[in-house]
Each structure stands twice: as structure tokens, then as C-alpha cells.
Amino acid sequence: RNYYGGNWASFSFSGLLSWIKENQEKADTSEECEDWRRLLLENEEAISLSKKDKTIQHVEDFCFGDQDSAEDVEEAGALSKLPGFGASAAVGVAQASEKDGSPGESASAEVESQEPDKATGSEPASATEGNDTEVTSENESAPSAALGESALEARKAETAPADTSAKEPKRITYSRIVREGRRFNIDLVSKLLFSRGLLIDLLIKSNVSRYAEFQNATRILAFREGKVERVPCSRADVFNSKQLTMVEKRMLMKFLTFCLDYEQHPEEYQDYESSTFAQFLSTRKLTPSLQHFILHSIAMVSETDCSTLDGLQATKKFLQCLGRYGNTPFLFPMYGQGEIPQCFCRLCAVFGGIYCLRHPVQCLVVDKESGRCRAVVDHFGQRISANYFIVEDSYLSESICTNVCYRQISRAVLITDQSVLNADSEQQISVLTVPAVDPGEPAVRVIELCSSSMTCMKDTYLVHLTCPSSKTAREDLEPVVQKLFNLNTEKETENEEAGKPRVLWAVYFNMRDSSGVEKDSYSGLPSNVYVCSGPDSALGNDCAVKQAETIFREMFPAEDFCPPPPNPEDVIYEEDEIAPEESEFSISPETEPKSSAEGSSSGSGIAVKKEDDE
């Protein structure tokens, strides 16, 4: 691929259009080296890898916005063909180090060059109006500061629009979306970070959190009786809520308090362990609206498939995550989910790791006697040897995956002109669950992002819809889109459509979910080849973190998984080693990013710290 992160990637609008075209055509772009088999020895055989990515299917995109000024659209679209607007280019750590002799500079160059067409967002002023605060692990007070390095601040300043205080008509055309396409960072997979989830713990432990910025998800919403409502989930929200009666407030607080330590009261639920969580809720003294809020917006579980214990556990997890970094349990990485893999790549680059873009691999080279993989052969005909090989599922050919049964994820991404629930502040990151209409169908998760999240341009919202697939993505998700949004392209809409947000552009696609596949399901893989999956359909990232740690421990059982990198002043060099100033990958003070206390005090982003931070 010519971009980072595989199916975890984020794209600018022009980059996403290129991705859509590539997946609709499904062309084989790799150039196979004809004489790679000559690199095999007599006692070796090859396992060919797939030349096409088959993880994305049924890609359909639609434009509902005004499509005037066709010439402007073509002119804006031509920008994507320019070197600075096209696919990202990798900068080698060694090359950057040779340029100025600074390993810290090389790491910065690696990351800043990863996505040159990624926009820094549309409204830097809105970021300070939103919910960006400096946060420590236990929510103790601390000075507001940016989490990332000054380079991240520079990214905002470079493409910040001029201050336009004069009121302009809020008219979004397709040509404007294309022209300002670099302000979009559109995720292929839509997820959030639980504030006490495994990924947050890993980001803190490994110090990777310093390379990213986060915002709170500001609202939990529910869709009930054809209306979008805000769900009170914290104690303050419950008692300030105007939609709940005093009796309902007491009911809700009593039940949530029970869920926090439900293990201590087995007599309350043991008679319902074989029942669904929805059935258990109906036996509690809860009104229908409270049952709906708990089931779909707090536990976020299926009405028909979730057991009582699983529902109680999900509710407890939600409640435990409240208050750590804000009034909801969730964080969202600014500039999109695609920032997370790039942050890990950045730390890897500091210590000599190399990430190669546009570099196809032809086959695995296997020793016939030992059955172990010795090397890979790339499209240049170069043989690269190693002791261990980690392969993403999409690289494996059909002959290896004959016994594998994949699930699918239905995805939709919309660009809209207003929020699904208007509030005093336009800068809201909202999480909404739309229950299934028919039994057996999955609920649809909706995440709505505003411009201060640096994922869309001013005056627009980016909406992600996700659910496990039962049909094509469009068949699964379009009914929900029609409930929440106005798809009418005419300026004059009917009265019932007038209050709905208008969809300007949309794309639907199905993505393979290989998260539940065991290694034994793959045929003929050597013992030192490990398979990692693409994204799963869950809201959090626990599956990916568990899988990464499992693979790591199988390879290196005596090593610590993702240990914190040493501070530069703590690195001791042996006399017979290369001097730090001469070493290509030496650790220098520039390598260590600014801590949150030393960083900018602009107040954008959330800093994630260790719990014992001094």
C-alpha cells in the first residue's frame, strides 16, 4: 500500500476518493518479479502471497450536495495528482539522521511525512471552545497543555483558515468539499478509546501517548420513538437531566450503583443468568425509557443475544471509565483513528524500525526440512531473512484460507451539514446507538465528529456508522441513514425532513472481520509465521491489543511487552560502542518529546499520564 495502517488508516477526502476507486476496480497493481524463484535453494519451497486486497467489498459512494461549478471540482480534484497532495511517502530514519545528525529530528521527519495530505483540521479556534483539557490519570487538576510536540501545533497553524468573523451563508457544495479535502481525516474503521481500556493503558505504559492528542466524546445519545435524546450517564448528568422525573433519577442511580459492585450481590441476578440482559432489566423497577438507555446507550449490547452477566459486565465497564478524563467514558484521537498506528510506528522509528510503503511481498520462503520460514522475497527480487514473520490476514492467499470463515463489518461514512442533535455548542463528539427494528438484526453504532476533532472542515460533520454485516453495507445501513438524515437533494424539503441534517456525501462498504480466526484455521503456515487480523466490529480496541501481546509473548516470552523507552539522560554507552553523537540511531534529548507540563498551553487535546506521575 502507499499509506500507513492498512484498514486502520485515515484519509483526506481526495485520498479516500482514490481508495474508493482502487477498491471498486480491484486492479492488481503489483509487478511480480519473474525470476524470484531463482533465489530459492534446493531444500526450500515458496508459499505465494495474495496480490490483491480482498478485505473490502461492495463499495458505493454518493454525492447529495450541490454539484455546481463542475470545472472547480475538476480543478480541485487535479490537486490530488500533485506530489504534495498524493499518497504519503516514507522517510527513512537513516536518511533523516544523515541530513542533520539528529535522531530526534529523524523521528519527527518520519511521522510528519507519513500523511502529507492529512489536514490539520478546519477550526483551530473551535478547539479551545470544545472540551480539550489537560488530564492526568486520576483526573487531578493540572495546567492545560497540548499532549504532542510542537510539530503537532505547527500542523494546526500551517493550514489554519483565516479568521472569518463575517457571517457567510452556510452553503456546502461538492466543489468546496473537494477544495478543502485536506481538512478531512476519514477513518476506515470507527472506534473510540475507553478511558480505562487496554489501549489507554498501553499508550501510557509505552509512552506512545505523547505522540498523539485526544478529545473527550462529549455526548452519549439514544434513538427512541423516532427522536434523538441525550442520555444522562454520570451522577451530575442524572440529577441535572430535565427529561427524567425524580422517581426515574432515583431508579437509575440505584441500578447503576448496583452494577458497580454486582459481583458482591449474586442473589440479585443469579436467577437470571440464563436470561438475556433485556429480560433481566424488565424485572428491575425501571421504566421503559430507562431500560432503553441502559441497554443501548450504557451497556451498548444486543437486545436478543447478550446474557445477563455480559450486560452487567458491560455496564460496569462503562461506569468505571466515567470521570477519568471527562464526563463520558470515551476518548477520540484528534486527526482520526489512523493516528494510533502511526504513533507506534514513530516510536519504532526512533529505535531503528523501518516502515516500507509501496513495497509488495511475493512469497514466504520455507525450509522443507524444519518447516520454518527463512525469508520473504519482495517484488524487486530481493530476499529478506528473519527469525519471525508477522503477516496481516489480507496478505494470505485463498489456498491458505480455505478453511477460514470470515465475518463482515458494514460501514458507512457521511459528510453532513449539521448535528443529529443541535446544542448550544456546535463542537460535539457524539456516540449514538440505533436499535435494530427487526429481531435478530444488529444495532447500528453512530459516531458523529465535529471540526474541532480535526477530521472535517468547518460547517460540516463527519458521521461514521458501523454494524456487523447481514447484507451489503448499503442494505444494512441505509435505513438508519434515512431515519436520522435528509437524503433529499432538492433545496425545498418536506416538513418532516426539515429538521434533519442534510447528507452532502456518503460512502458504503463492507470490511472483512478476521479477528476471531484461530491460527490453526490457516493451512500450511510455518510455525514462526504469525497472523494478525484487521479491525473488528467492537467499539473499543481491546481485541487488537490482546492479539498484539499474545503474538509478542509467543515470540519473546521473557521480554516485557511494549516497555517504556529509556529517557535519553539514562542511556549509558559502553566505551567500545559508537559515541552517541556519531551513532545513526543514538538517543538524544531531541528524541524525547516535550512533556505535557512543558508543552504548549493552548489547551488543545488531552494529555494521558501515568497514575504515579509527579
UniProtKB/TrEMBL annotation:
What keywords tag this UniProt record?
A: Cytoplasm, GTPase activation, Transferase
Can you supply one Gene Ontology CC term for this chain's record? nucleus
Residue ranges, annotated region (Disordered): 93-146, 559-614
Q: Which InterPro entries match?
A: FAD/NAD-bd_sf, GDP_dissociation_inhibitor, Rab_escort, RAE1_2_domI_C
A single GO molecular-function term is: GDP-dissociation inhibitor activity
Query: Per the record, a Pfam family?
Result: RAE1_2_domI_C
Provide the protein's localization.
Answer: Cytoplasm, Cytosol
Name the GO terms of the biological process aspect: intracellular protein transport; small GTPase-mediated signal transduction; vesicle-mediated transport
Tell me where in this chain the RAE1/2 domain is found: 409-537
Q: Which residues form a coiled coil?
A: none
Q: Where is the composition biased (Acidic residues)?
A: 571-584
Task: List compositional bias (Low complexity) regions by residue number.
Answer: 596-605
Determine if Cytoplasm is one of this entry's keywords: yes
Q: Which domain of life is it from?
A: Eukaryota
Q: Would you identify the family this protein belongs to, as annotated?
A: Belongs to the Rab GDI family.
What is the name listed in the Swiss-Prot or TrEMBL entry for this protein? RAE1 geranylgeranyltransferase
The gene behind this protein is Chm
